[in-house]
Write a structure and sequence with these properties.
Largest sheet: 6 strands, mixed
Number of strands: 10
Helix content: 25-40%
Strand content: 15-25%
């Protein structure tokens, strides 16, 4: 699937992240010894219990946080801060309510470095391209309050793509949607990402989710994290053929991989919501 001789798009090597409380309070080791290599065009999903450091990992790739120790590189160069080559999409849409769909999508082109050197006509053409790509034709002049949750998330996705970053960073982007809309947008995301294109032509995607089925459906590989401190427990190759569609959920491996991931994170997931220290019974799913 990948060319092992080509440079890696992202490389984590023994990355640790510690947060220091204010006024010399106790420090918290949020991420420990995180090592991972990501190929160009890969779709990586990161799952794990609440508080395991998933968002911290994504923020370090975005340059919003810097590792306390270890090395983090993109295209063989250290990540030292934010950059237009890495775009971030959040769960809460983060749309500007006073701007229309097309204004939100084109904001980075009109006011940021991604649009540098582009004429107004070129910006307009690119915005139209991504409006059409995410299926929002006809909603260009609408404001966020006039759109459904799924449409607002499409605007956020189009805004991310319009800046044409090299790496797509998505933090629970579908988490606030209803179940049906979420399933539809999973399919749309794979289409927009380019699952029918050669891997070399795809964007590299890092996608944070709590939904195991979502991760298995979307990803080339799933990184399973544990907590206290955040760390990699396993990295699973998702050997379900692409392109994926609704029938992929009935593939024999789909349920098997879901169960494998759940077994890896089950005990810590229960403790994350209950605060229990006791192990979880294999048979009952309750504290032993």
């Amino acid at each position: 699937m990948t060319d092992t001789a080509s440079p890696k798009k992202l490389v984590f090597k023994n990355v640790c992240k510690t947060f220091q409380a204010q006024r010399k309070g106790p420090s918290t080791l949020a991420v420990s010894d995180f090592s991972l290599e990501v190929e160009t065009g890969e779709f990586i999903c990161i799952v794990g219990p609440s508080g395991c450091g998933k968002s911290t990992v994504l923020n370090m790739i975005a340059g919003l946080e810097l590792p306390t120790s270890g090395k983090l590189k993109k295209d063989e160069s250290p990540i030292t801060g934010p950059g237009a080559d890495r775009g971030v999409m959040f769960q809460d849409y983060a749309l500007m309510p006073w701007q229309t769909t097309e204004e939100n999508i084109g904001f980075g082109l009109r006011h940021g470095s991604p649009g540098r050197g582009m004429s107004p006509t070129q910006i307009e053409q690119r915005v139209k391209h991504y409006v059409d790509l995410v299926g929002l034709a006809g909603a260009e002049k609408k404001y966020p309050h006039q759109l459904s949750g799924g449409m607002r998330q499409r605007v956020a996705l189009a805004r991310l793509l319009a800046n044409e970053p090299d790496v797509l960073l998505m933090d629970e982007p579908l988490g606030a949607l209803d179940a049906q809309t979420r399933l539809i947008l999973q399919m749309e995301l794979l289409r927009i990402w380019g699952q029918t294109s050669p891997q070399s032509e795809r964007k590299t995607a890092i996608f944070i989710t709590h939904d195991i089925e979502e991760a298995v459906f979307l990803a080339d590989r799933v990184v399973v994290m544990g907590s206290n401190p955040g760390r990699i427990k396993d990295v699973l190759n998702i050997d379900i053929p692409r392109p994926r569609n609704e029938s992929s959920r009935s593939h024999p491996r789909f349920g098997q991989i879901n169960e494998q991931i759940w077994r890896l994170i089950r005990d810590e997931a229960y403790r994350a919501i209950s605060g229990a220290d006791a192990p979880i019974s294999e048979e009952t799913g309750t504290e032993a």
